[in-house]
Amino acid sequence: MDASQNLQTDKAVLPLTDSVQEALAITRRGVDELLIESEFAQKLARSEQSGQPLRIKLGLDPTAPDLHLGHTVVLNKMRQLQNLGHTVIFLIGDFTSMIGDPSGRNVTRPPLTREQIEENARTYFAQASLVLDPARTEIRYNSEWCDPLGARGMIQLSAKYTVARILEREDFTKRFKAGTPISVHELLYPLMQGYDSVALRSDLELGGTDQKFNLLVGRELQKDYGQEPQCILTMPLLEGLDGVEKMSKSKGNYVGITEPANTMFGKLMSISDTMMWRYYELLSFRPMEEIARFRREADEGRNPRDFKVLLAQEIVARFHSQKAAEDALADFNNRARGGIPDDVPEVSLSGAPLGIGQLLKQANLCASTSEALRMVEQGGVRIDGETVSDKGLKVDAGTFVLQVGKRKFARVTLG
C-alpha cells in the first residue's frame, strides 16, 4: 500500500451536511465527469470541518492571446467553486507551452518561443478576470518548479511513468498506428502537467474532456509523491457558432469575450435554436429549473428567439454592461429591419470610379475581390440599403454605406 492510500485509509468517512450536498450539486452542474465523486465529497466535508479551503487548479497554456466563450465554460466552473470559498489557482503554463500540448493533435505542435509565450500570457489573466474574482485568485507559472528540475530531475520524473501507459492515450495511439511521427518531447507533456499538480498540492483539477488523460497522470504522480490524489473535473467542449466544430479562433466560429457588445450579441443570435440550449447549459448562470421552464415553453409554441435574446443579453451584460446588452438588442433589431447600425466604421478611399470587388476589398469588408464578387452573386451586398446585383458595377465618388451580409458595414467616402 502506498503513502497516498495510507492517507486515505487513515481518514474517517465524514457525513455530508446539507451545505456540502449543495456544494456538490453546484460542482456537478454542466460537468462531463467528476472523478472520483465520493472522494471529492469527502474533500468538501473535511474542508467544511477544518475551515481549510480546497486548492483548485486550472492550467492554461498561453498559445493564443485572446479568450473566447469556449474557454469560459471551465472558467465559469472555477468562479462557482471560488464563490464556495475555495482557493482557485490560475496556472499559466509558460514552461509546458514550450513543449506544446499534443491533446487532440495528429501532428507535432510547433513549440512556442519564450517571447510569444510572454506576449500571450500578458493578456490571459486580464481576460480571465472578466470571469474570475482576481482578488481571490492565485496566479502561478509552472516554470517556477519545472525549470529547477533540470536534466537529473526530468529523468527521475520520467522514471515514474511507462511508455506503454503514455501510449494508451488515444491521440498517441492513432498517430503510432498510422506511422505519424511522435516526438519524444511530446511524451513528456502529460508528465509535466501532472507534476504541476504535485508542486501545487492540488485537490481538484479542471479541464476540457480532451484533457482527461493529462489530469489522470497528475493524480497518479501525486500518489507516487505521497500526496492525497486530486479529483478530476472535466467540462464539455463548447461547439462553435456552426454547431459542429469545437469553438476555435482558427475555425472562425468563435465569440471573443473582448469583442464589441453588438458583435457578440449578433453572433449569439446566429446560433441554431437547438444549439441555444447547449449554450444555456454551459454558459448561462440562470437556475437549471428556469432553463427547463424556457425549454417547455419553446416546446409548447413560444418563439425560441425570445429565449435566444435573453441568453445573448445575459452574456453581453456579463462582459460589458446591462446597458450595452440593451443597446445591442436595439441595434440587432434595427439591422433586422434593414436599418444601419450606429457604430459603422468610417473609411476614406480614392480612385473613383472603383469596381465593386475592389471597393469591398479596400473597405475591409471582404478578404479578396473574388470573395466580394461571390457575395454580389449571392445577393449579400448593399449600397445605402439597395442590393447590388451587377458584378461589373463601378462606383462613383461620394459618401455611402456599404453592407456585406447581415453584420458587416462601412461608411465609405470615395474620392
UniProtKB/TrEMBL annotation:
Subcellular localization: Cytoplasm
An MF annotation (GO) of this entry: ligase activity
Motif ('KMSKS' region): 246-250
Binding site for ATP: K249
Top-level EC class: ligase
Classification via PROSITE patterns: AA_TRNA_LIGASE_I, S4
Pfam families with a match to the protein in the record: S4 (PF01479), tRNA-synt_1b (PF00579)
RNA-binding S4 domain span: 354-415
Motif ('HIGH' region): 62-71
EC assignment: 6.1.1.1
Entry keywords, A to Z: Aminoacyl-tRNA synthetase, ATP-binding, Cytoplasm, Ligase, Nucleotide-binding, Protein biosynthesis, RNA-binding
Record field: catalytic activity: tRNA(Tyr) + L-tyrosine + ATP = L-tyrosyl-tRNA(Tyr) + AMP + diphosphate + H(+)
SUPFAM superfamilies with a match to the protein in the record: Alpha-L RNA-binding motif (SSF55174), Nucleotidylyl transferase (SSF52374)
Subunit composition and interactions: Homodimer.
UniProt family annotation: Belongs to the class-I aminoacyl-tRNA synthetase family. TyrS type 2 subfamily.
Function, in words: Catalyzes the attachment of tyrosine to tRNA(Tyr) in a two-step reaction: tyrosine is first activated by ATP to form Tyr-AMP and then transferred to the acceptor end of tRNA(Tyr).
Entry-linked PANTHER family: TYROSINE--TRNA LIGASE, TYROSYL-TRNA SYNTHETASE
Protein's name according to its UniProt entry: Tyrosine--tRNA ligase
Gene: tyrS
